[in-house]
Amino acid sequence: xxxxxxxxxxxxxxxxxxxxxxxxxxxxxxxxxxxxxxxxxxxxxxxxxxxxxxxxxxxxxxxxxxxxxxxxxxxxxxxxxxxxxxxxxxxxxxxxxxxxxxxxxxxxxxxxxxxxxxxxxxxxxxxxxxxxxxxxxxxxxxxxxxxxxxxxxxxxxxxxxxxxxxxxxxxxxxxxxxxxxxxxxxxxxxxxxxxxxxxxxxxxxxxxxxxxxxxxxxxxxxxxxxxxxxxxxxxxxxxxxxxxxxxxxxxxxxxxxxxxxxxxxxxxxxxxxxxxxxxxxxxxxxxxxxxxxxxxxxxxxx
Length: 302
Ligand SMILES: [Fe+2]
Fold this sequence. Notes:
Blueprint: H1 2-16, H2 22-36, H3 43-57, H4 62-73, H5 84-87, H6 95-102, H7 104-115, H8 122-127, H9 148-163, H10 174-183, H11 191-203, H12 211-226, H13 236-249, H14 252-261, H15 272-284, H16 287-301
Helix pairs in contact: 3-4, 3-9, 10-11, 12-13, 14-15, 15-16
The structure holds fe (ii) ion.
């Protein structure tokens, strides 16, 4: 009897665990990392995007672009192993604390090297703080000894640091960021990669490639999807993608506000109770809960 109860419980749990692919898992991990650092909401997703754009600009294949995107998504995954108090310390870090922060590169390398199916992803995590002139960490590599993927992620990472809010009150003007990249070309950055970044910026007249630009674009997509019409099962994947995007780019409050605006009752029109459960999950913004809630809504729709 007890056994049967256990089997039933396990079966129920099994049915509740959302099936996630590698990409969803990578995004969920990135979200966890960003959530730990209060200053850098959406940092991992933006770095992934910028790194992918640079790879494309350098003429790399779509497979390579995708790989670099995923490396970008997970480049800071080692921060999971660093104390949150140090990561969010508002005052100046001591040399010892800096030392600990620097280990996020090697911790990330260890994590990705062992748990992911593609151990290559570990390259970005380990070497994204190396500098072209050899004055970076953890290994002090220089020039083309630094894997190209890591040189690209380094560029994307620094670009995001300059174009997101972080501890600054405002985002730096585009021209200032551009000048800074040119100034560090050949010292911090690979010159060819810095040139690619500058070329991308010169095409980005609306300054979409910045923290606020990315948030506005996600908001627009969400609004478009929400629209006036009921959401159909066929649109479900788009809804899910837009939600993951927004959740990865924004802080909890912003995402919650946006999710409240999305008329989810149109997905599950008959079940108000379900709607409040979904809303609750969104309020909490627990990632697994969010995916589960949307899956539940989908079941009701069919
Ligand atoms: Fe980092």
